[in-house]
Each structure stands twice: as structure tokens, then as C-alpha cells.
Amino acid sequence: MSRLTHVVSGPYAPPVARRELVAVSADGARLHVEVHGDEDAPAVVLAHGWTCSTAFWAAQIRALAATHRVIAYDQRGHGRSPAGRAHSTTALADDLVAVLEAALAPGERAVVAGHSMGGMTIMAAAGRPEFAERAAAALLCSTGSSRLVAEALVVPVRAGRVRTRVTGAVLGSRAPLGPVTPVARKVLKYATMGPGSAPDKVEACARIVHACPTGVRHAWSQVLAGLDLDADVARLTAPTAVIGGTADRLTPIVHARGLAAALPNCVGLTELTGMGHMTPVEAPEAVTGALRELAELYLGTTDPDITDLGTTEKEKTP
Questions:
Q1: Which residues pair with residue 146 across a beta bridge?
Q2: pLDDT of residue 1
Q3: pLDDT for the residue numbered 304
Q4: Where is the AB hydrolase-1 domain (predicted)?
């Protein structure tokens, strides 16, 4: 019996797309793209993270599709996108550019959001003129630009070479995750979610993560282990908001703070108290609200007088 790849009921069950298309990347990799909402509505593009799929954005798609055109795609090897030959940040950037070209009308701009590896995808693409022409604004959600293994808090020991080595072995494991069991849910919740996460949110994330092929999970873990996109952050000149959870063990809040300080045009840092790494699922209203506000500000969907996103959060941040 095939493994269930996402929950099929409730707010985290992915809605049916209005249409689907295939974007072809620079190396020929084919990417599954879903489009939700009216064709004439302002566009929001969503890039999911490591081991996830378009189903990860179900709450945002449901909330935004009535007023926005929401475009979500499966990263190569994830969801319904076949694994490509290359696993690199260059490939991630190529893929995002291909999706923007395939899904947006000529000259159209969008708010582009990325969670975890999706945020890294945005950073990797920041220096591309094709990205600069299409991205009216960006949202970096629970992500980082470098030192992912060294900073991760998944292994509860003091920072140092031992923790880094053990963390790398855990995150880069080739072992299959197996079925979603009570123990598997507890492990996933500990590693990726805040301690107060509701069971339906844990279940939604577990189904998605456990559906990722083992080989794909391992291949991308190696890319993330060596990630260094610090120079690319300086090239991300689009207005960019940052969101992070204070209980994130995979990309701790130090990453969000570092990005906010390094971005040339950061328009707000939101720190979500008690939330872990899966913020679009754990705090869907906060992430959806940030997307709405970016669209209002930079796509002119409603109030043109708003001039900053997350001022309160920025002022509270050291």
C-alpha cells in the first residue's frame, strides 16, 4: 500500500488546484506547479522546504486563494516533481526562476515566499536578474544562510565539534523514516515543532515529511550541510520580511536575527514565541498575515500608505 503523502481532511489538507503546469529548469528538470485562485489576482509564489511539498502550504493557500493567485511548486525530488540530476543551490535558483517564468505573465511581479530550503532558494536566486525582475517582495520563513549544522539544536548537548558531527550524522542519515507511528510523531515534533504544537499540526507535518523519498532527503541534506549563502543575502534587494520561531531547533532564531541584520532591505523581523521550525503550519495566521501585508505594500492590493512590516517586532529584536 502506498504511503499517505498528506492529511486528507481539515485545514491542513491541500486544496485542489485550479490548474497545474510543468516548469522546465535549466538542466531539464521538470517541476510540478499548482495555481490556485483567479488568474487576474495579485500573485504569491510559495517555495517549500527540505522534505516537504506543496501540501505544506495548505493553510496559506486556503486563506489567500480567494483574493490572490497562489502559485506553489514542488522542489525537485519532492512531492510530484521528479528528482533532477543536480542537487545544489544553483539548481534551486534555476528551478525558482523557471517557475516564475512559467507561472507569471510577461512583466508580472509577485511576492515570493520560502520556508527553510525554500528561503535558501530565494537567497540563491537573489543575484539573478530574472528573479529581481519578478520579485516585488520576499518572505524568508524559518531559514538560514549558513552554519546550519553547527547552529542546529536538535542534539541536546553543548555546542562544539561533537554536537556538529552528531547533528550532521542525524540530519544526513540514509535510514528510511518508515511509517508514521506515535513514536515517529514524537520524534518529528521534538526536532521540528514547538512543544505546544497541536496533534493535527504534528500529523500534517509528519505525513508530508515521511513521504519524502529517502534518497532525496539524504541528497539535499548534504547540500544544506555545506550551505554558504551569506554573500547572496546581500544581493537580495527586494523588500524582505523575516519570520522565525523562538523554539526552532533546526534553524534557531539566531539565523532569523542574522538575516534581518544582513539584508539590504529588511522590512520586518517577526519572532514567534514558542514556535518551532514548521511555522507556516504551527502559526498559519502569522505567516498568511505577513504575505497579505507584503502584497498590500508591494503589489498595491489595498492600502498604499503602509510603510513598514513588523516594526514592533523589529524594535523588540536586539
A1: 228
A2: 32
A3: 36
A4: 44-287
Strands, sheet with 43-47, edge to edge from the N-terminal-most edge strand = 19-24, 30-36, 69-73, 43-47, 110-115, 135-141, 240-245, 266-272
Q: For 76-96, give the DSSP string.
A: TTSTTSPP-S--SHHHHHHHH
Q: Which of 187, 198, 217 is nearest to 75 (CA)?
A: 217
What is the C-alpha to C-alpha distance for residues 100 and 72, in angstroms, rounded to an integer?
10
Q: Residue 109 in contact with residue 134, Cβ under 8 Å?
A: yes
pLDDT value at residue 307: 40
Query: For residue 194, with 0-12 CB atoms within 10 Å meaning exposed, 13-18 middle and 19 or more buried, which class applies?
Result: buried
Angle at the Cα of 140 (from 116 to 204), degrees rounded to 5?
45
Phi, psi of 292 (to 5 degrees): -60, -45
- Distance CA(192)–CA(177), nearest Å, equals 14
Which residues neighbour 97 within 8 Å (Cβ) at sequence distance 6 or greater?
A: 26, 125, 128, 130, 131
Nearest to 21 by CA among 114, 101, 102, 77: 102
- Tell me the chain's radius of gyration from C-alpha atoms: 18
Closest CA to 100 of 71, 140, 69, 67: 71
Residue type, 23: A
Report the alpha-carbon distance of residue 81 to residue 74 in Å, rounded. 6
pTM: 0.93
What's the confidence (pLDDT) of residue 33? 98
C-alpha separations of 193 from 50, 155, 254, 288 in Å: 15, 14, 17, 18
- Confidence at residue 137, expressed as pLDDT on a 0 to 100 scale: 98
> Residue 4's pLDDT is what?
78
Quick one: cell of 235? Answer: 544581493
* pLDDT given at position 3: 59
The ranges of the chain with pLDDT < 50 are 1-2, 303-307, 311-318
Dihedral sign, CA of 173, 202, 186, 184? Answer: negative
Cβ neighbours of 1 (radius 10 Å): 3
Quote the cell numbers at residue 28: 531539464
